[in-house]
Every structure is written in structure tokens, then in C-alpha cells.
Amino acid sequence: MLYTEHVSDPKHTRFDLARAGLQKRFGARALVPARAVEPRPPLIPTGFAAVDDMIGGIPRGALTLLSGHGASGKLTLAYRVLARAQHAQHGAPGQQGAVGILDMTCASDPDYLERCGVALDQLLFARPQPAQPLVQFLLDWIRQRKARAILVDHAHDLARTPANAYHLRDGLPQMLQALAQTGCALICVAELQPAWQSFVQGGVLPLLRQHAALHIAFRHERWLERDHELYGYAAQLHVQRNKWARSGQTVSILIEFSADEFAPL
Amino acid sequence: MSVACCRVPNFLLRLTQRRHPEWAGRPLALLGADEQVWSVSPEARLSGVRLQMDARQAQMRCPDVLLRPLDLPACQAEQHALLGALARSGLPLEAQTWGTAYVDLHSVARTVPAAQAVCQDLGKQVAAQLGAELEPSIGWDTGKFTARAAAGCAKPRRICLVDSDREAHFLIPLPITLLPLPPLTLQQLDWLGIRTLGQFASLPKMEVWRRFGPAGKLAQQWALGQDRRPVCATLKNIPEPLDVAIDPPTAVHDAVLEQLWATLQPPLAELAARLEGCRRLRLELSFSNAESRTLDCAFVEPLGAGPQLRARLSGELQRLNWPAELDRLRVTVLESSELVARQLSLFAADESQAEIMTLAQNLAGRYGAVLHQAQVVHKTHPLFERRSIFQAVGV
After folding, report:
1. What is the pLDDT of residues A184-221, one digit of tens each?
2. In terms of CA atoms, which chain B residue is nearest residue A86?
3. Quick one: residue A94, left, alpha or beta (phi over 0 = left, psi -120 to 50 = alpha)?
């Protein structure tokens, strides 16, 4: 019944029937018409060659979720992305653009940001009170069209109060729409929480995971030691979801505390 | 009416740079007797140094800034020279601010060709008096506001004549920040998408009056090119001093400041309704041991009833050595003049920083001081919290 317009063409009918059969068996996304595939948005490189080879970078105009335990490299990668977002040629060549951090933990270290290559004069820290309407604030910020990338550190605080949790559930589709319209990259960094805490607090992570175009899970592999001194650590990145490419890949990176550049393993 | 506005942009700065050419091209801030910044070079402005900052704030924003005291007598002499050159024409003259003055041409020129000839004469006289480094630009129109806007649009040594026929056309695309409205009002208008004088002029008059009061109504008239203020001599009748209702004898600084602020509200509100601010204030303090002190406070720019004026009064009272408890306090608004618009510069601002400031101001209007910028001040400090400082922006 769906393909009545092609009934007269036996070739089309056979193709549609075959497609319907495969979709029924393997799911609706197993076969998608070419015109229905969303074009890949511009990407912001991460600065880690291995990661860029794997996924190309962080998509602009979409939500990216970086999750993992502490000291697994989430913030380092996010800071490097902010630095590259500032220098990405958006307007005039060589002109820097503004980026922002929704710093609800008030623990951002400008010195480390600078060492990651972020120009502090083009970076805004937002430190709202938890009781303020955070999602609305974020939405307004994105709609101002003056930020190339915004980092939310850390994402669980977006739903610390019941009102904010409600607004987050309600406002995420609007936020995704605003991101797509403005081309701003939203990067949410979230610590992994025990299952019982997610149950009690309603769980921000599942909600963000559902709406994220790219989800990378970070895992601390090992500390790097030289002459009984720690000089960095190795982290493993696992692409759990990627809207525009194959997911499930894994890559390892080395993060050295005093290094300017990071090398893949 | 027929008004010419003669304007020497960045008068204080260029005057200082003329005396010290080695400072040209460097970030420079000139400090007044009150240790506040009275003038800023474009290089320092790019680093965030603003008028009315104190020296420490300026140095925090721009560590390389040259902080030099302003040679006030020399500047006053040049200002008098400018006014003298204009006064030589024998026309009524009104000084607006440093390097800016209005001349009433009503008696000699009412048409564009006649005004052009008179303005050329005025420009030549001023240029000859002040020298090549202080080149004026002149604007002419039937009202003071449009004349000033025209002078702001004209390049140095150029004249911008706005005929009454194309007055509205001239004003329509200009930014609304040319109007000396309070920052909060400008922010509200920005939220409403009103960013040019043309957009503001096309708003319903009743709504503007209801929402922004008499000052808004007056500003809308100016935006329409209907500025009927006459050019009057700067020296006006000095009003009677106002007695501040303190509970004598007192030595409580905060209480005195509160009462002083309350006493100043009516005259400041009266000035604000005319889009004017206080330029000079006199405080007369009488103490219980029969001693008295007189403080004359002159401000860089005319100030309205805002936090800047309050902070300045508080500073003056704190700096003063009180010989005994205060018995009587009188305040006089000695001089007032038109409030200075926020954007009236020929120098292009740093666009990226301006974008950040606009964003911060827009969000601050709704959410308060939540946006900050960071600066690393002590790279080697063992505690990461001490390595950098955060400063609120947009407030």
C-alpha cells in the first residue's frame, strides 16, 4: 500500500518489497534512502591524531557527550577541542572566535586551559547558581550565535534541582534545534555514576546519551611513570555512538602532564 | 534653529601625545587627580582599559599600559583655546565636553550653502589655533543631537552637513547607542531588537513614554531629529546648596553617604529627565570643632544617578580627613551637561572582544553577573586556584 505510485513499475515494486523485508528483519535503520541521510556537519579536530583519524573530530551544530571516570582524559580532550574551535576559520581568516565553559563546579583551571592552547581572552566562563534556570541560560547563550563551542562541565549539574531536571528533559529538543541552526558545538562532560545514584537522581547520562550525536566513553588505562615520577597517563576512548560513522571503535591516547602535544599509542 | 558641533575626538589623549610623541602607538591611560582613568588610547582600550577605572584596575587589564598623570592645566588651556577660537566668530557658544562644543548659527546661516561657509571658517580657525595634531570635525544640523552625530560621522578636517530634508534619512541607520540612554534601557531595547535610531524612532510614542518615561520620550524625539534644545552658554546660574539631613553630630560614614545619596536623587532625576548628568559637585562639610572643608568633585564625564557617582562620593568622603564629628553637610550641583553616549568614536573597536562584551551584557541583563573571563597571573604558584583570577564581564 505504501508504494502504490510504483505499482506500474515492476522493478521499483521488487526493490521496495526487498527493502521492506530487510527493514522488517534488521530494523528500520538497516537500509536508509540516500536522500534521508543527514549531511555530515563540519568537524572540529581534537588535536589527537589517532582520534581525528578515527572520527574526524567533534561535530559542530550537535551535542557531543564525553563520559568516563576521573583522570581519563575527558576534559583534556574537550579543552583541546575548544582551542581548535577558537582557531577554526569561521569569519575572516586568522580571526579567533569565542568559546565558553559552563563551569558549574567552579574548578576550571585557566592555566591548564592556556597550556591546552585556549586563548583566554576569547573564552567565557559561566558560573550560574544551581537554582538558576540552567537549560534556559544555555539555550539563550547558544541562540546569541556568538559561541563556536560550549563545554558543559559537568553535565550532571544541569539537573541538580528538580526544576532544572524537568527543564532539561523538556528543553533538549529545542537545544538541539538551536545548535543545528547556529552551528555551535555543545560538549557535555559527564562523570560515570554508580547505578543507584542514577536511579535516585533520575539519570542525566541516559538522557544525554539518547540525544547525543557523538558519544565517547573514556577509560583510564594506566599511569605513566619515569624514574618513580608520574608524568602522565594512558586513556582508552571507545566510540559508543556516532551519528555519521561506524561506532564501536577504540583508540588509546597518551596524555602527558607537561607536554604541549599528545601522541597516539 | 541652526547648530554646528565642533568636535576634536580623543582630545585629552591627542593633546598628551602631541606633547610626548614617544607615547604614540603604545597603550596609554591618563590619570586625573582622582587617580582614575580620564582618557585611554585605542591600544589600551583593546586590552580592556576603560574610562573611570582606577590605576590598579587598568594595570590588571593591561600590564603594559603606560599610566601617566594628566596635565590638567595644559588641557584646560587648550580647551579654552578651542572655545576661544570658536568664540571669535561672535556666535553663541556652548561647551559640551572636552574637545566638543556647539555653536549657534541661527543668526548667520540657515541654509546648507551658508552653513558650509561658516563651518569652514570655524574649522579653519580651530585648526589654526590647535595645530595639525588636533584636527576637528564639524557637523551641522537644525538640532544639537543630529549635529553631534554628524560631527561624529565626519572625518577629521571634514564637515558633515545634514539638511533638514535628509535628517531622518541620515539618522535611520545610526546605532541607538548614540543616544545617551542609561545602559539598562539600551540593554532592554537590544533585547527587543531595537538597534538603530530608525527602529527606535518608529516605535509608538505612547509606548516609549510609558516604558522609558520622559527621558525615553526625549530620546525618541532626538532620534526623529527633533531636538529643540537651544545653544546656551555653559556657565549657568549656580543653584542653591541642598542641606543633607544627617543626624548631627555623626561620624558614621555609611549613614552620611546614604543621606547624601538620598538628597541628590531629586536633582539627578531632574537632570536625567533632560538626558543630562552631573559634571561638577561641591560638598561643604562643617565639623563640630568649627572647622569646615569644601570638596569640589569634577567628573571625567557627566554622571547620572548610578553606581559610579555613588562610588566616587564614597571615595571622596573616605579620603577626607575628618577633624571631628560632622555637624552639617551641604551639596551643590555646580555644573551639568549632556550625558555622553557610549559609542562615539572614530576608532574601530576590537570586533571579537566587542562580540564577547555584547554577549556578556545581553546575558547579564537576564541572569546577572554569571559570565567571567580568566587571566593567569601567577603561573608558578603551587595552588592552581591562586594561579589565575576571574573577573565578571558584562556588568
Report:
1. 999 999 988 776 666 655 578 888 888 999 999 999 99
2. B352
3. left
The CA radius of gyration of chain B, in Å to the nearest whole number, is 22
Question: At B215, which CATH number?
Answer: 1.10.150
B150: Cβ contacts below 8 Å, ≥ 6 apart: B5, B139, B140, B141, B160, B161, B162, B170
**Chain A CB within 8 Å of residue B388 CB:** yes
Nearest-angstrom CA–CA distance, B15 and B31: 14
- The fraction of chain A above a pLDDT of 70, given in percent, is 84
Give the end of a domain, one of B294, B314, B338.
B338
The total number of structural domains that make up chain B: 4
3-state DSSP: chain B helix, strand, coil percent, rounded to 5?
40, 25, 35
Q: Which of A160-169, B21-30, B285-294, B340-349 has the lowest mean pLDDT?
A: B340-349
Q: Flag if B366 and A95 touch (Cβ within 8 Å).
A: no
Length of chain A equals 265
Please give the ipTM for the structure prediction. Answer: 0.80
Does the structure show a pLDDT above 60 at A21? yes
Residues in A 128-167 with any Cβ partner in B closer than 8 A: 128-129, 132, 137, 140-141, 144, 146-147
Terminal-residue alpha carbon distance, chain B: 39
Domain span at B116: 1-139
Q: Is the pTM of this model over 0.80?
A: no
Question: Cβ B359–A124 below 8 Å, yes or no?
Answer: yes
* pLDDT for the residue A227: 82
B393 inside 8 A of chain A by CB: yes
Q: Which of B49, B358, B372 to mutate to test the interface with A (most CBs of A within 10 A)?
A: B372
Q: State how far residue B172 is from chain A, nearest Cα, in angstroms.
A: 24
Residues of A in contact with B374 (CB under 8 A): 108, 110, 113, 120, 123, 125
* Contact flag A125-B390 (C-beta cutoff 8 Å): yes
pLDDT tens digits, one per residue of B13-65? 888 888 888 888 888 888 887 778 888 888 888 878 888 788 888 888 888 88
Interface test with A, best of B45, B350, B355 (most A CBs within 10 A): B355
Classify residue A29 by burial, with Cβ atoms within 10 Å: 0-12, 13-18, 19+. Answer: exposed
Question: Has residue B85 been placed in a domain?
Answer: yes
Which pLDDT does position A2 carry in this prediction?
37
Instruction: Report residue B238's pLDDT band, with 50, 70 and 90 as the boundaries.
Output: low
Considering the domain A41-256, what is its CATH architecture? 3-Layer(aba) Sandwich (3.40)
Same domain, B318 and B356: no
CB B241 within 8 A of CB B332: yes
Interface test with B, best of A109, A111, A257 (most B CBs within 10 A): A111
Who among A108, A123, A126 is closest to B370 (CB)? A126
Would B149 be classed as within a structural domain? Answer: no
Nearest to B375 among A120, A126, A132 (CB): A120
Identify whether B156 is part of a domain. Answer: no
pLDDT at position B209 is 86
Instruction: Note whether residue B343 is domain-resident.
Output: no
The domain spans of chain A are 1-37, 41-256
Contact (Cβ atoms closer than 8 angstroms) between residue B78 and residue B130 = yes
Least Cα separation, residue B24 to chain A (angstroms): 24
